[in-house]
Every structure is written in structure tokens, then in C-alpha cells.
């Protein structure tokens, strides 16, 4: 059985989904793909179902009843992947902001480099972001600085969503306790990994903003991250994390 599964959450990604699937599945390493679709009104799931006949045994689809949030989509995907005994479980966006060619870099960091969690990092070697307005670059960058300050994690890109987990990490985290859905979800997963003393490494990537479809970022998601970091730290201090 293949040991790698790439989880791609979708909501209205009809413009990107076929291209991203084909790109991931054309990599030298034979990745599998799991799409978690939140009942996209643009029928993203239908396109995935059509492609499943072409990529039988490599492309999988989980359809949910509505827009339930990024964090819950990934937790759903983690459980699915763990049940099927995948050893390396990836997070990836559907919009090509994460380059599929970088998947093997993350895999190598875990499989050969000894990392338990490999992060595709925008900031570990400076600021490697293309097509973002300066205001969003600064917001993202300083969010990671803020997370470092509050949590003590020496991670340059705490909100990154391009990640490879070894299965032992996800088995060691109580997924029932994951509560956040946006930026805060990404921070929470890294912090729980950090608190379990797993080895975390950052792999430099170039992040390119989407050219098709609409961003899911909102002020509510950013607010959740700001307040969520404090909540996570307090839970750690009182041993309830």
C-alpha cells in the first residue's frame, strides 16, 4: 500500500481542483489524494468523482453536509488516513498556493531527515511570498512572531498549512480536543505537536497566492488565531491542553 496521503479540503474550488489533483498525482513519488468537500455549491465534488474513474485507488473523496470549517475537515481527513494506515499524512491547499513539487521535500524531511512534523515555511529563510499585498504579508509574518512570543515555539511560520505529519504525531494527539477552524487550527496542531516533544522542522518554500477562485480568509478567522493562541497557552499552564 502507498504510505503517503495528501489531504485537500475544498469549498468552491471547481476552477482549481482538477489541475491540483493531476499535479499531485503526477509527482515522481506516487502520492494518494483525499479531497474533503464541504458541499460546494459549484459542484467541486462532482469533478472529483469524475476523476476518480481515471485515478482509481489513488483519489478518494469524502463529502460533508455543509461548510464546517478547515479544522474539522482536516481532523476528518486525519481520522480517515489513520484508519487506512498511511504513514505520512499531508495538508495542502487546493489553489496552488502550495506547489505540488514541494511535497517530496516535506516527505524527505520526515522520512530521511528524522522530522516528525515538516512545515512548508514561507518565513524560515526570509519572506518567500508571491502576489500577496504587503498588508497581508505583514499580518501573516507578525502573527507568527506573536505565536513564538506567547507559546515559546521556535517556528517561523506558525500559521502554515502545507505540512507533512508522521502518523505517530496524529496518533499521539487527542483529535477530539481540536476546536479551532482557521489560522488557529494550524497553530493549535503545531503547539500540540510541540508540547508532545515531537521533532518539528521547517522546509523553505515559495508561497504563491491563488490566481483562481476566492480566498477563504476573513477577519473572524484572524481574530480566532489571536485569541486562540492565548487560550492554548493558558490550557498548557493549567495542564488542560
Taken as a percent bin, the fraction of beta residues is 15-25%
What is the number of beta strands? 9
Q: What structural category do the secondary elements indicate?
A: alpha/beta
- CATH-defined topology: Spore Coat Polysaccharide Biosynthesis Protein SpsA, Chain A
- SSE string, helices as H and strands as E: EHEHEHEHEEHEHHEEH
Instruction: List low-pLDDT spans.
Output: none
Quick one: biggest sheet? 7 strands, mixed
What would you give as the CATH superfamily? Spore Coat Polysaccharide Biosynthesis Protein SpsA, Chain A
Q: What gap, in angstroms, lies between the N and C termini?
A: 34 Å
Helix content: 40-55%
Roughly how many Å is the radius of gyration? 17 Å
Q: Quick check: average pLDDT? A: 91
The backbone outline, from C-alpha atoms, is globular
| Discrete helix count | 8
Widest sheet, order of strands: 3-2-1-4-7-5-8
Proper CATH architecture: Alpha-Beta Complex
How many domains?
1
The first-level CATH class is given as Alpha Beta
